[in-house]
Give the backbone structure.
Amino acid sequence: FKISTTKLMLKNEYIDILEKYFPKNAILPASELLEKNPVKLFLTFPRKTKKGTFVFTPGKALKITLNRDLKPEEMLLVFLHEMAHSLTFKQYGRRIKPHGVEWQTNFLSLIDQYIGNGGFSAKAAKVLTACYFTPAPRYRPNCRYLRDYFYPEAKEKSYLHQLSEKEKFTIVKQPNKQFILDRKSTRLNSSHIPLS
């Protein structure tokens, strides 16, 4: 599914498309953002390694992809992340770091705008404020509050560095196999053990 946003698209056309994927209060501001900053927007099948991308190809329109299976507020957050890349690219070109100070400034500004205009729910706004504006504005890509908000079921999951020596565990991709943690020097090793 592709949304090619050109200067010829009207705000109503953006709204018709975005209302299927975005939180209700974010639809109008997002359509205005797209109207002012045209990009080709693609809603893709779910990808495990990324939720969205910003792509620049010389001689072609700027492109943003978003996984179509995201929850509405997560879709908005990823959209703003990728739009910040687009805005930053238009301002500075390719001579800056992808998540450098310039991008962070644009991203945090967009987040602040959408918190202020009610684009995010009160609960999401509180989580975003805790992640990005407390104690001071700063991009924190792995903020656990965000993970816990969007994926409360992930609280049950652990990471290898959180497990004790010789502790048994399973992994998502092989739920029928059980492993035991063996820490040797600086490496984490695991051995398969039969399920009991």
